[in-house]
Amino acid sequence: MKKIIVLLFFYGINITFAQSTKVYPDFYEIFICKNPNGSTETLLATFDTEGKRGFIYKNSKNPDKEIPLTIVSNDNDETFVVNFPNDKKSYTLKTCIACPEIVCNNPDGSVQTFSLNYDFWGNRGSYRCINPDGTTEYLHIEGSARDLKVKYSSSTRPSKWINLEVSNVNVSDMDNLNFFDVKFPYDTKNYRIEANPTGYGYNCWLPNGGIQVFNWINK
Q1: DSSP string of 181-208, one letter each residue
Q2: Looking at beta carbons, which pairs linking 196-204 to residues 24 or more positions away fall under 8 Å?
Q3: Strand order in the sheet with 53-59
Q4: Average pLDDT over residues 11-19
């Protein structure tokens, strides 16, 4: 996609992409609990390249603070007992690999349900392609299939972002993306973005027949 970067520059900064996710492993799903008092709590269910599970907690009172939870016990990757750092209180999380929610049993006996955020479900997130000439290109993908948003940047202008025009979105179960097409603004060339079979990236088919591989990143 880099042939066009000398002509087009980004119109804005994507804050979600720019925020640090330094503690995140290679893949994560976002689960949100909206409380009756209006506050929001978030659990990130994480996976590393070997499939090891983890959980990170955030809340709307301090949205920039990320707290990795300690897993005390793990029953078949479905029931997890977790603690906050330096806190002996135990929380039980019930979920599964493809579950759309996490049920949390709190130490005081209350129960919370964290629902999967479908806008970031599956193969959404940030992706990077390192080209043979050493330049780097980025894609950030978010939203549902009906409202998919794709943005592009490169190492030549890392603070500039281009909002790409999206069409022909094709999805599988639970809104996972199979492929979609993008165009740069004011350009007729079409790029086909196709999910990599590994589930951790995309292949970008260029108008000239070439291909670039964008791998999942978390920053």
Answers
A1: EEE-TT----EEEEE-TTSSEEEEE-TT
A2: 199/27, 199/123, 200/26, 200/27, 201/127, 202/123, 202/127, 202/139, 202/141, 204/1, 204/129, 204/139
A3: 67-68, 53-59, 40-47, 27-34, 111-116, 101-105, 91-94, 79-83, 70-75
A4: 29
Helix (H, G, I), strand (E, B) or coil at 22: coil
Amino acid, res. 188: T
What are 178's two structure tokens? 């199979």
Comparing 127-131, 170-174, 175-179, 200-204, the range with the smallest average pLDDT is 170-174
- Average pLDDT over the chain, rounded to whole? 81
Q: Is 70 exceeded by the pLDDT of residue 6?
A: no
Mean pLDDT for 87-109 is 91
Task: Return the pLDDT at 9.
Answer: 24
Closest of 138, 108, 110 to residue 214, by C-alpha: 138
Confirm if 21 and 27 have CB atoms less than 8 A apart. no
State the pLDDT at residue 118.
Answer: 67
Q: Residue 213: which H helix or E strand, with range?
A: strand 211-217
Token output for 133: 């000439």
- The H or E element spanning position 29 is strand 27-34
Query: Letter for the amino acid at 57?
Result: Y
